[in-house]
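Backbone-to-sequence.
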């Protein structure tokens, strides 16, 4: 029944030499003394448990949250020691030290990878924009569908496949004109294209005044003998009649 008392006294004996060395080197501060008074009744096992849980919490945290945790390291620790103790990267340790000096402990970085995080409203607006009839059209084949999981939903929803009526670059320029209040880069706009919105396999004008159109039609007739019926239309929606 005296095992716990003996353990506390043994832990105190192991801590006192370290405190004495700090006093001799004048490295002990007022905050350190207050912290010692608060945790002097803790055993070494309890202290190791706290540190072990902190290391586990750090390993399971997100990238930016890890930098915020690193600001708790002592001011005397350099970049290499901070990175080694918590198994962090040199970049994280460097950013944490800069944050601790400029903003104090537990300061949260705004961003650390060069690009600011895009707003959620902008992401939703871009995704909805791809589904507009002026940007894409639904596939005429009713069986042309995909199972898509939206957000954190557990079940997938069957969505009809759509095809872009223009290039992604043209859609991006039109989006900037229609929604000037949303800031987004071209590459991000491309990456936000939903899986069920596909690029058109071939975009070509079939206008009679288009030289490329004549070449395409000529090669088709020579290959298949198909003279193309009157149902074919050009990019302006006008019916195309192939001369005899």
């Amino acid at each position: 029944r005296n095992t716990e008392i003996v353990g506390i006294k043994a832990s105190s004996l192991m801590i006192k030499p370290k405190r004495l060395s700090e006093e001799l080197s004048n490295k002990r501060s007022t905050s350190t003394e207050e912290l010692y008074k608060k945790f002097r009744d803790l055993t070494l096992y309890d202290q190791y448990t706290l540190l072990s849980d902190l290391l586990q919490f750090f390993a399971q945290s997100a990238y930016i949250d890890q930098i915020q945790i690193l600001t708790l390291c002592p001011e005397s620790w350099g970049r290499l020691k901070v990175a080694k103790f918590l198994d962090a990267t040199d970049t994280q340790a460097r950013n944490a030290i800069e944050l601790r000096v400029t903003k104090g402990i537990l300061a949260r970085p705004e961003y650390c990878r060069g690009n600011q995080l895009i707003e959620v409203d902008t992401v939703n607006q871009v995704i909805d924009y791809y589904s507009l009839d002026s940007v894409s059209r639904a596939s005429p084949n009713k069986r042309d569908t995909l199972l898509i999981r939206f957000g954190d939903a557990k079940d997938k929803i069957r969505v009809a496949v759509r095809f872009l009526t223009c290039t992604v670059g043209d859609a991006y320029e039109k989006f900037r004109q229609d929604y000037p209040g949303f800031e987004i880069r071209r590459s991000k706009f491309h990456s936000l294209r939903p899986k069920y919105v596909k690029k058109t396999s071939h975009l070509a004008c079939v206008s009679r005044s288009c030289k490329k159109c004549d070449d395409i039609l000529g090669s088709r007739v020579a290959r298949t003998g198909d003279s193309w019926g009157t149902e074919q239309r050009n990019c302006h929606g006008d019916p195309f009649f192939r001369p005899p």
